[in-house]
Here is the input.
Amino acid sequence: MLTLITGGASSGKSDFAERLVCRLPGERIYLATMEPFGKENLSRIARHREKRKNKGFITVECSTNIGSLVLPEGANVLLEDLPNLLANEMFSASGGGGENLTEELLTLSARCASLTVVTGDLFSGGNHYEGDMLLYLQRLAQCGNALAQKAALAVEVVCSVPNILKGRIP
Amino acid sequence: MMIFVTGPQFAGKRACIRQLLGLSEEAFAACAVWDVQEMADPDRLDEIADSLCTKKIVIATEMGCGVIPLDASERLRREAAGALACLLAQRADTVIRVCCSIPQLLKGEWPCASC
Here is the structure.
């Protein structure tokens, strides 16, 4: 089952996604996309790990090339988060460009019991971007839209409250 | 009968409404206007809203959710866009918000292909 969670910064979308995945039986994998370097990233990673400590997640780090990632079959996977993963794919030295990210995520989803993807609303600020940033936003939106179309459940989290775009919360 | 559509940039607003109403690209272009946030002249908002109401479908992109712009003209532009969207939503029979390509009904009834 594919689930897409979106929302603004600090809207509670990660907490919501974690609660959702924690209800599912079986193995839980937290697919962490943040590159583990730099002071800010490391402290954010430590904070998130602490928050997840007793929730039964195995953390797997994957900041680029998610298409070649091998995970145990049949796990419940929480991917956090799509904007970060695409930025790594497009702008990091080890990234593959991100052109095929949607297909790679759908392939991953087919091998999991469930895949829950956290994305974000970067599209309501009224800014006029150009060049690489515009391409990044277009690609992120395309990927999010395509995943929402395939998803059984799509939720926008607003001030920690789920606004269900599609499907039913199990 | 006007349908007002809003939602984030690149959310697939046009494609979604076109599909909902079963319109060809040509038919859609003939009865719809989009990116109306760019038309928001702060001195003529009511007049603009009235004239846009002659269209069947009016589409605006949400642009008010970021940091307040440092530039005064950008601030004015953003506020005018928000105010115009409110006027359009008030005049509309149906308001739909599209997020991640999925439509949600905020006001009125779901339009159908035969409407």
